[in-house]
Amino acid sequence: MTFLGKINIITYLKKCNGEVTGQLVSDGKIRRYYAKYKWQIEPKEIIIISKTNGTGDNVKIRSEIPLDESMVSFFGLYSGDGAKGSEDKKNIGLIKTAISFSQREPNLVRFAVEEFRKLFKGDIRFNFSLGEDSAFFMDGDGLTLLKEYYGGIIPNTPLLNEIRPQLNNADNRYLSESRKVPGTNEENLSYYYFHKDSMKEILIKRKLNEILESGLKLTENDKVTASLRRPYKKGAREPGGSSRSDEIYIGGVNGFGDFFLKIMQEIEQSIHDDCRESSQGLIEWNDQPSKLGNQIDVIDFFTHHNYGSIAGERPSFSREGIYHIGKWPRSKEIKINPTLLLDPLWCYVSGLYLAEGSTSKALMFSMYREKPQGLALGFTSSEDESIALLLRALQSLFPTSDCLDAWKIKVGSQYFPELVVIGLKNGVPMLRGGNSGDGKMRTMEISLALKDWALEMAPALIPYADKYSHVEPTGAGVARIDMWGSSSLARWFFPLIMYATFGEIIDDPVEGYRCSITFFYQM
Amino acid sequence: MFNHLFLPDVNLEEVKLPKHYSEWLLRWFRSIEQDLENGVISSSRCIQGAFIEIVIGGSIKTDWVGIMNEYLTDEKGLPIAYSEEFGELLNNFNQWKQNTIHSIHARWWLEKTIDDDSDVENLERNIKELIQPSGWIYNPLVSPTRLRGRMRAELMMSLAMGTEILRSGGIAKNHEDVFQALLSSTSRTNFLSAEYFRIKSLEHLGMIQLIPTHMENVIEMCEAGEGYCDFSVTTKVDDYMGSQKRVARDVALHSPISSLHAKGISQYLPIETREHIDARIHSFGNHLKLNPFDIPSFRMRDVDIPFGTDYTPLEIIGASYLIENANDN
Predict the structure, then answer these.
(1) Counting Cβ atoms within 10 Å, is residue A310 exposed (0-12), middle (13-18) or buried (19+)?
(2) Among A137-141, A320-324, A394-398, B191-195, the least confident range
(3) SS3 at position A508
(4) Closest Cα to residue B235, out of B266, B188, B191, B297?
(5) DSSP class of residue B237?
(6) How far apart are CA A382 and CA A163, in angstroms?
(7) What is the ipTM of this complex?
(8) pLDDT tens for residues A213-251?
């Protein structure tokens, strides 16, 4: 473990007189957060922080929090998977913050919970929640689970007016919506109400198993809950389709969300700007971030270290100029830097990639035990800082020109009307690719018209401008950049980010990751 | 008279270009001339280049058909949308060779405009082969997307282009039944371009009686800024979930092309509705006269970076027409 710096909680609170505020840009929204805190100093360098307006909890925290590799990685992970807050409907542009975390991979859940426990010294508790579309239980694995639950035969679903004589507003809204799915809205709503408790019980059992298998110890205050959505309400488009969402809600820290966001932002900003101290002084590194951290001998790491082996195999090396040439069995040669500094940038990006990278999380944990298939490097983001940080981390290991194979722009269906207009302005229709329309956009004029938007939004991509591939219409979401590198890079990048995040916690990655789910409902 | 489906009512020969517009169009033209030297060309650029030549010089001066023969024709002699060199503007875009309806129409329009009918029969045959069993006209080899996932504006634009070519060749009648059934059973959309191109198809087929009812609602909901946008933010609905998505930060923006589409639809609406639309379009023309480049591009929510194209030759020519039209009133 290397102490890279610290979070100056008490110094910062005194400097800003308890007023914590900032601007957050995420998903194309520019929003702000604000909270005023008071604090009370306790023995053993502990302080108790609470909001001056009397809402929220009394949060116990150290006055100075050391930043080691795993803590920096944790904030990277939270930057990707953590809640940034929802908009206050009474005050547009202001965020109502909460500390919660969306992740289903059990080892990452365990890691995040353990880091939360390191961070907060008081009695914090966790609510592990699993949400699912009830259409999942209408076919396939979900239906099998439901059958098992009922002992082999699923009872017939009664009519809606029998099971639910009084409909609420959400029911009525659901019934009025139009979806191209099997069954009527009435039948589907009836199925939902009739099996709701059974489905919930199945999900809770599943989630609890995953948590326990990961080795995470629950306290008596922690809870596992499940929630069912009305069929096809979100994501699932056919019977048996899944739209699973996993959340961890952290109790005992209500009101601390604004402060937490500030810490995360100042860590990210100081790493991005490579400044020893963040702009408000909340973060203080031991040196300029790019000069900090453990130096890794890359050759030695992949030749001897536990984390440098994939499924029992190791790469071979040769030399070419300043780079070494590395080659994994059955893979192609890669130019690689002989040394790597596990600096705050690398640690932060490690967490960020574990959260946001398009690689299957399960694969990143199971690759130590079994030969991985389809290992690939990919990352999607709508924010320049995240893209810039990832590219800088890759460039610290590989030659700049090798870091990216290509990038594209993904645009959610909400913005298809805008794409159509861009086509009309250029005298062309919007022609989609793939059977369901979510393949490569065929209309080049539209793809080319969006290239400048992407390069202005994420200038870090300018060196890779000629690797822009296309626009990809997709199901939902704000326009964002999706980039990917050669699958050969993944074998070098992943062991090193896994080591940066877990190296000090889990010594042997083959045995250390006790639970790795490849299919989320596998019993 | 030089007119084109994209810009209803606009006689390209008679468009009076404000000076700043003609300067902009000439700059655009010079930029594609440079690309052309390297074979970087698309059928949409050819059409826009020809438009510019007509509005500025009164006639087509470039051998666009020759350029199409050289760069925009595949090995079977069919028109394609992009040259191989244009395809290289995107990384690894192997799908550049596209025999699309709009590339066929671009070639057909240019040949008709310069009175060179030598290849027209081939183009008519090409369109006939692309009529799908449903009646829609598209090339599934270019875009294999199922009907449900295709954009309404794309289907209607291609149908309008296809029926224009078939009518000109006197062969639209051979397919009248299938088009009639299709258009009669296709619901009204919430998009001006889709409805405008539907009307053009109905005109080409002599079936204007199949115009959907309450088209005035579409035009009314698409009022945006000083003129009209192709869509209304309030009707943005997610394709898959059937629910309205979060659109609080999305903005519909006025566009000369969309405003012309509204005008194109309005001729089939009651007189009082037409007068309201005309008045709004005149007012938009006056606005453009004072603010000629107020033809904005979209933004992605709060981020102040242009998301896609703002003005193009089509928008500029459309804007010139609107300004001129406003001056007349």
Answers:
(1) buried
(2) A320-324
(3) coil
(4) B191
(5) B
(6) 44
(7) 0.97
(8) 888 999 999 999 999 999 998 778 899 999 899 999 999
DSSP classification of residue A20: E
Asked if B302 lies within 8 A of A418 by C-beta distance, the reply is no
Domain residue limits, chain B? 1-120, 130-212, 222-329
Closest by CA position to A501, among listed A381, A357, A404, A285: A357
- Asked whether residue A515 carries a pLDDT value surpassing 60, the answer given is no
Helix (H, G, I), strand (E, B) or coil at A417: helix
Token pair listed for A44: 């053993």
Residue A430: its chain B contacts at CB < 8 A?
151, 153-154
Query: Please, are residues A500 and A65 in contact by the beta-carbon 8 Å criterion?
Result: no
With contact defined as beta carbons under 8 Å apart, do B301 and B249 qualify? yes
Q: Beta strands A468-474 and A406-412: pairing type? A: parallel
**Min Cα separation A80/chain B (Å):** 20
Q: Of A483, A485, A464, A460, whose CA–CA distance to A472 is shortest?
A: A483
Q: Which of A381, A384, A291, A302 is nearest to A344 (CA)?
A: A291
pLDDT for A180:
81
Q: Chain A window 166-205: which residues touch B at a Cβ cutoff of 8 Å? A: 177-180
CB contact under 8 A, B95 and A27: no
Element (H, E) at A512: helix A509-512
Give the integer Cα–Cα distance in Å for B311 and B254.
Answer: 11
Distance CA A429, CA B151 (A): 8
What is the nearest CA distance from A479 to chain B, expressed in angstroms? 7
Q: Which of A381, A409, A420 should we substitute to test contact with B (largest number of B Cβ atoms within 10 Å)? A: A420
Residues 6+ apart with CB under 8 A from A76: A347, A348, A349, A350, A351, A352, A353, A354, A355
**DSSP string covering A212-245:** HHTTPPPPTT-EEEEEEEPTTSSS--STT----E
Q: Nearest-CA distance from A216 to chain B in Å?
A: 36
How large is the C-alpha radius of gyration of chain A? 24
* 3-state class (DSSP) for residue B253: coil
Q: Three-class SS of residue A181? A: coil
